Amino acid sequence: MFSDLMLPILVCAGCLIIIVLVLIKTRKKPPPKTFSIPGTQATRPSQNGETEAAVSEAASDQGLLSWHEGFESTVLDFIEFSDGLIETIVNEAPLEEMQSIDVFGATETLELQKAASEHPSPEMGAELSAMLAAVSASLHAYLRSEFDLAEQQRSFYQEYREMWFQRLRQFPQDIDRIIRLRRA
Predict the structure, then answer these.
(1) Residue 111's domain spans which residues?
(2) Would you say residue 179 lies in a domain?
(3) Tell me: the pLDDT tens digits for 84-107?
(4) Exposed end of the chain (fewer CB within 10 Å): N or C?
C-alpha cells in the first residue's frame, strides 16, 4: 500500500516544484525605486487669499536668492582654488611641493564650509561639503601615490562642480565669471 501511494506523491511533488520554479522565473520584477522629492502638502488658502504653498515657495526662493547673493562668489572662489589644485595634481607636481598644501586651512575652504552650513537646503549644503571632500581626498590620494583613487576623486569633484554651475545659474550674481569658470 505504501508503494502504491509513493509514486503519485512523487509525481505531484515534482509537478509542484516545476510550477514554483516557473512562477519564480517568469514573474515581473517591480521597477527600481527612484528618489523623488515629495510633493507639497495640501494647500489651504490664507486670510489674504494666497495659498500657503505659494507663500512657502516664495519664502524658499527668497532664502535661495539671499544665499546666492551672499555666497555665490564664495563658491566660485572655492572652485577657482580647487581647479588650481586639481590642475597641479593632473600635471603631476612633485610630492614635496604638494605636501605643504593645507586644503582645510585655506580661506576659500573655510568660507565654503560656512556657505554649506548656511544653505537653505541641507542636501545642497551637503553637496558643497562633498565637493570639498572630493578635492581633499584627491590631494591625499595623490600624496599617497594612489593615482587611480586620485583620478576617481577628481572625477567626483568635476561632477559636483558641473552640478553647482547649473545651480548658480538660477540666481546669477556674476554670470560672466560663472561662464568663464565653466569653460575652464
Answers:
(1) 60-183
(2) yes
(3) 988 888 888 887 777 878 888 888
(4) N
